[in-house]
Specification:
mainly alpha; 13 helices
Length: 342
């Protein structure tokens, strides 16, 4: 693997030497490719455009991030920002590379979670967009537009992950392929009409399944904290290492959001029928609510308390988007209509 890693470091050097003037753009792209963007941004936007597609986005994001976590535990995978210092390949003449706050993630590197979740979620969104465009026009240009946009998004997110030293190129490619394959399979099985019991047991199953895998690997003699130790050793700024990038944070985000999805569907199975203006208002209110929720700081000690609160925090996302905010807007719109009719 050393030759693959060395080639990846060379690619990162080339990108940083040529794209450093545009670092703001690439840091923005890597931020938009973060798995949490699927929960906080792509899910509500898609949901208020198309309810079924929005539910599919959240469902696919949950399964993609959970699958990525399990794959990382099995595949391990170095990260460039620590490998270049940990490896003896370069001796005292190490490449001059720059770390960013988004570089210092603590989980293993293979496959890229950003690319895997982005590939899965954007496949759902572009499939929905393609179906909508084809229902409006038979233009061949419009047919190929979602495909080109999909590939462009994967390309820029992949470049951003190598640029920030978060991943090697081969980890980016495997993440994109795995995400696209998972998205293609999962999109055909969206649990829109399932019971609350299904979501509760599914959430519990993902949680216990991941913990069982973790425990079995530990009993097999594997140290699954190795990546955290390397991150703490080689990240240039300790404050860049955050608990919300740890593997168990991904697990609690996914299981919390899955239970929240079940509760939202249980509270209002068919949702509220809202015209375009109330839907836009719902999106605006949801965005403000999710922004405040995301900004809510959680205590990081003890870690178990953080993970429990993080579970609840992410469980509130689908509840706000699918139940609380639409119910509020529906009530306001209904009251306004009644006053208009008087």
């Amino acid at each position: 693997m050393e030759s693959i890693h060395m080639h990846g470091i060379w690619v990162a050097e080339v990108l940083q030497s040529n794209l450093m003037d545009y670092q703001g753009f690439w840091l923005f792209v890597t931020h938009m490719g973060h798995p949490k963007a699927a929960f906080l941004l792509y899910f509500p936007i898609t949901f208020f455009l198309n309810r079924k597609a929005g539910i599919a986005v959240l469902w696919v994001a949950i399964l993609a991030e959970w699958s990525n976590l399990i794959l990382k535990w099995f595949l391990f995978g170095e990260r460039p920002y620590w490998w270049v210092s940990e490896s003896a390949v370069y001796g005292s003449e190490k490449p001059e590379l720059i770390q960013f706050s988004s570089s210092c993630e603590t989980g293993p590197g293979s496959p890229s979670g950003h690319c895997m979740v982005t590939a899965a979620v954007w496949l759902v969104m572009m499939t929905s967009l393609s179906a909508h465009l084809q229902s409006r026009s038979r233009s061949p240009v419009l047919k190929i537009l979602p495909v080109l946009l999909y590939l462009l998004v994967l390309l820029v997110v992949g470049i951003s992950r190598v640029f920030t030293l978060s991943h090697f190129p081969h980890q980016v490619v495997t993440g994109c392929i795995a995400g696209a394959m998972l998205g293609y399979i999962v999109i055909q099985h969206v649990p829109e009409g399932k019971s609350l019991r299904f979501f509760a047991f599914s959430s519990l199953g993902l949680l216990l399944g991941a913990l069982l895998v973790y425990r079995c690997l530990e009993l097999g003699g594997l140290n699954l904290s190795w990546s955290i130790e390397l991150a703490q050793k080689w990240c240039v700024k300790p404050e860049w290492i955050r608990l919300d990038t740890a593997p168990f944070s991904s697990l609690t985000r996914d299981t919390g959001a899955l239970l929240g999805l079940g509760l939202a569907l249980y509270l209002k199975p068919g949702g509220w029928e809202l015209p375009l203006a109330p839907r836009a208002l719902s999106l605006a209110f949801s965005s403000m609510a999710l922004y405040q929720l995301n900004q809510l700081a959680l205590p990081t000690s003890p870690p178990l308390l953080f993970y429990c609160l993080f579970f609840i925090k992410n469980g509130l996302i689908p509840l706000f988007v699918m139940a609380v905010v639409p119910r509020l807007v529906h009530a306001i719109a209904g009251q306004g209509q009644e006053e208009k009719d008087k």
